[in-house]
Amino acid sequence: MKISISISIGLFLLFGLNQSLLACELTNEYKELKWELVKSAREATSECEHSIVNVNFWYALSQCVTKQHEGKISKGFNCSREASHNSKDFIKHEIDPTYCDTFKPGSRIFGGILEEAMLRRGIKKCKKHNKAVK
Questions:
Q1: Where are the domains of the chain?
Q2: Quick one: which of 10, 48, 51, 80 could link to 100 by a disulfide (CB 3.0–4.6 Å)?
């Protein structure tokens, strides 16, 4: 029993210390850059998702106005209301909303953008630690 406890403690110290040596204290510049890019990525994702809703509205509205002009529906028909309520009377564009995931923070592409921005601005990710040997 004592042997297994001492082995466990030894392994913990060995791996625990190695992890702490590998740990990185992030620089303030890196944190600021990452936060700036996260905000931009969230805005881009949101705008992308809203654009899908918008394109379907405008497409439905154009179909309705065209039908009114051709006399297929009455001039008093409220096209804007019908288009905004996703009326089944109008064809929708089939747009895959998952392409907006490209812009999300945490995506593979986002990581690459962060790395490129760090290089362009000369920003280091980790603070240097002075390890004085006594």
A1: 25-121
A2: 48
